[in-house]
Design brief:
Blueprint (H helix, E strand, L loop, with lengths): L1 E5 L7 E3 L4 E5 L10 H11 L9 H7 L3 E8 L2 E8 L5 E5 L5 E6 H11 L9 H5 L3 E2 L20 H11 L3 H26 L8 H25 L8 H35 L7 H10 L5 H51 L6 H65 L10 E4 L4 E4 L6 H18 L4 E4 L1 H4 L4 H13 L3 E6 L7 H10 E4 L20
Parallel strand pairs: 3-12, 3-13, 8-11, 11-12
Antiparallel strand pairs: 1-2, 1-4, 4-5, 5-6, 6-7, 9-10
Helix pairs in contact: 6-11, 7-11, 8-10, 8-11, 9-10, 11-12, 12-14, 14-15
């Protein structure tokens, strides 16, 4: 429990607390600006809140200061300090509040949750406890919306936190995760359709596609029968591949024909023989005895050498061309084998194959559109089914909580009045709730209902504390307030309450307020910080 809060700026530097009820008492005149609500915000600050550090007027008029505080648990006492200037840092301190070690606020709140044994599934300490620290200046004092933590929080989120606080969310979690997954799957698919990554059609288009697929399939069947080609067994990819092979065969055969032509020319040149000039040389010598026969023979030998080289080159070229033709023949044979394996009849024209391919592509496109339609319908159906399952299990768990809260509020309410008055009731739907007191819409009754609700929550859950500012209690009848004080005392939780106008209550209630008062605040020096900066200087 919280044992004390200390601050060197307080007029009463140390304020000690006990288990059960702790009262911050104002004056009988109900004076304002003496620090009751401010001290409530300090208690919130001690329990991990941040509203106090947002109070610009406090920083301006009080200046930088530390809030020091002590907790006592079964395993010992623990001292801490938070500066108004360092909202995200908590200091571990020694017994004299000398700062020793800085930790982050989140770590500190986790420590509080552990020490108070309030560790709840997927629910932080602040999100649970902060809702029931109701102080002027926070946004959770709406008497008609007891679950609301801040002004813009929607009912669905508030209800989710309540389920976790009651330990009922685990029962829902698996169904909730499945529902969330199916929702995301459907939304992802439909988004892809909107971006034209996936086809999107309606029921009419789906029916028209079915008819068109049937017509195109019949056209393929007719084409296959006319040609006796077995085209029915060919898919679009095979048909496209066959067209590609056909194109390759045409090109390769054209290249082979060119090589064959070159080979024929080579073979003709290989048979060419250079004519011998030996006999002509001798005849020339008879007519021209002085001719240089030796030089002529040398030329002849040169020609023979050239002829030999030429024939060798032709021979090598022929062998090269023959190898190319052989390679082309192998390739052609392979392509024709592949083509036969694809379409059965390799002699089909490219025109026929192209027509067949186009028919298949149209069918495939229409089938993809219809498959996308069916997939979207399937995902939508799964999403709706999972949402219905989630709704069912959620309403079951909320029904249990609703029954328990209403029963507890009825018991508490009966202890507040001599005569019987209607107790507040809460009713849940899947995403919102109604909180009211039947047949009574008065302001005091509404605030009484809020207090009764908080007491019921404290009784039924692990919530460790309640903090109620005077703004909640001053609207309630004196009779009810007196009995509410008794309920605070008996609720088995540490309760912090701000009240004033002590003498307006019964003597019994007044005596109880005196008994449980931890600090009394009053004007002209008895304010929380020793003075009120809301007064004009001349009035100080």
């Amino acid at each position: 429990m919280l044992c004390e809060i200390c601050c060197k700026k307080f007029h009463q530097e140390r304020i000690e607390f006990s288990s059960g009820l702790n009262v911050i008492l104002g004056t009988n005149a109900g004076d304002n600006s003496i620090g009751k609500s401010t001290f409530m915000l300090i208690i919130d600050y001690v329990f991990g809140g941040n509203t106090y550090s947002d109070a610009v007027d406090i920083l301006k008029n009080v200046g930088e200061h530390d809030i020091c505080f002590k907790f006592k648990f079964a395993n010992g006492e623990f001292n801490f300090a938070r500066s108004i200037m360092e909202r995200n840092t908590v200091w571990k301190c020694d017994q004299e509040y000398n700062k020793k070690e800085a930790i982050q606020l989140d770590e500190y709140c986790k420590w509080l949750s552990k020490m108070y044994d309030t560790e709840m599934y997927d629910l932080s300490f602040r999100n649970a406890v902060g809702r029931y620290i109701r102080v002027y200046g926070k946004e959770n004092c709406n008497e008609k919306r007891p679950l609301q933590y801040f002004h813009k929080e929607n009912d669905k989120e508030s209800i989710l936190i309540l389920l976790k606080l009651f330990g009922r969310y685990k029962t829902i979690e698996k169904v909730a995760l499945r529902a969330d997954s199916s929702k995301k799957a459907y939304e992802t698919f439909t988004k892809a359709q909107k971006l034209n990554y996936i086809a999107k059609i309606g029921k009419r288009e789906y029916r028209n596609n079915e008819k068109e697929i049937e017509r195109l399939s019949q056209e393929i069947e007719n084409l296959s029968k006319e040609l006796d080609s077995g085209l029915l067994d060919i898919n679009s990819a095979s048909s496209d591949e066959a067209i590609t092979i056909k194109n390759q065969l045409t090109q390769i055969k054209r290249l082979r024909s060119s090589i064959i032509g070159k080979l024929a020319t080579i073979k003709e040149n290989e048979t060419y023989e250079f004519s011998s000039t030996t006999e002509s040389t001798h005849e020339l010598q008879e007519f021209f005895p002085n001719v240089n026969i030796k030089h002529i023979d040398e030329i002849e030998n040169f020609h023979k050498k050239i002829a030999l080289v030429f024939k060798n080159e032709l021979h090598e070229e022929r062998r090269s061309l023959e190898r190319q033709i052989k390679d082309y023949n192998v390739t052609i044979e392979d392509l024709e084998t592949r083509l036969k394996g694809l379409i059965g009849n390799p002699n089909l024209s490219k025109i026929i194959l192209q027509k067949h391919s186009n028919l298949l592509k149209n069918i495939e496109r229409l089938k993809q559109e219809n498959e996308a339609f069916c997939k979207a319908e399937e995902l939508l159906s799964i999403k709706k089914a999972d949402e219905e399952s989630l709704l069912k299990v959620k309403l079951e768990q909320l029904g249990i909580i609703e029954k328990n809260i209403n029963a507890e509020m009825d018991l508490i309410n009966k202890k507040l009045y001599i005569e019987h008055y209607n107790a507040p009731i809460i009713h849940f739907t899947e995403s919102n709730y109604i909180f009211t007191t039947p047949n009574d819409t008065g302001t005091g009754v509404a605030y009484k209902g809020l207090v009764v609700f908080d007491l019921a929550i404290a009784h039924l859950t692990k919530l460790p504390i309640l903090v109620h500012d005077s703004v909640l209690l001053k609207q309630i009848s004196d009779e009810a307030v007196g009995n509410i004080i008794k309920q605070y005392i008996s609720c088995n939780k540490q309760v912090f309450v701000a009240l004033d106008k002590q003498d307006s209550y019964s003597k019994e209630t007044s005596d109880l307020l005196d008994q449980y008062a931890k600090i009394k605040l009053y004007p002209n020096g008895g304010e929380l910080f020793g003075y009120s900066w809301g007064k004009k200087p001349e009035d100080k």
